[in-house]
């Protein structure tokens, strides 16, 4: 089985494209989409992402209960792509979840990653951008950073996308 992979990067850095390109279009892949079509821009983004995926792949929409959804897919496919943790954290914040509850869910996700291979997760790296002006912006940045750290620690491989170029940040140890 393929190792677990976290793909980080800024907006439009090629994260989703990289995830799609590294997996076989013939494999039984399930994409767990966390986006909700709340406005016209998001409707277009969702349509674009669906069009970029192989038609054989299936999509499950799960904006909130990500860990339970992933546990339910155990053994049902060759691999899973979660697109993306950024929107998952945003959805939990919008629902009113407390910071510690969100980080607990991230710990649950990290535990699941350690038990399962063939899992690709996508998230934004938001800590390198402009300092947020609002308390909610700061909270979101800090929470997503905490979630990303937990997931990165659990994944075998971590890749940072920069201008469409993958930079390996963490790789499995080479065994002789």
Question: Characteristics of this structure?
Answer:
alpha/beta, 176 residues, Rossmann fold, globular, 6 helices
Description:
The chain is of the alpha/beta class. The protein has one domain (5-170): Rossmann fold. Helices cover 43% and strands 21% of the residues. The chain has helices spanning 15-21, 40-52, 66-72, 85-95, 99-115, 135-154; strands at residues 5-9, 29-33, 58-61, 79-83, 119-124, 157-162, 165-170. The chain has a seven-stranded mixed sheet with strand order 3-2-4-5-1-6-7, with helices on both faces. Strand 6 and strand 7 (165-170) form a beta hairpin. It is globular, with a radius of gyration of 15 Å. The protein starts with a strand and ends in a 6-residue tail after the last strand. The mean pLDDT is 93.
In short:
The protein is α/β, with parallel strands linked by helices and 176 residues long.
Q: Which whole number gives the mean pLDDT?
A: 93
Number of domains: 1
CATH topology: Rossmann fold
**Quaternary assembly:** single chain
What topology does this entry show?
Layout (H helix, E strand, L loop, with lengths): L4 E5 L5 H7 L7 E5 L6 H13 L5 E4 L4 H7 L6 E5 L1 H11 L3 H17 L3 E6 L10 H20 L2 E6 L2 E6 L6
Parallel strand pairs: 1-5, 1-6, 2-3, 2-4, 4-5
Antiparallel strand pairs: 6-7
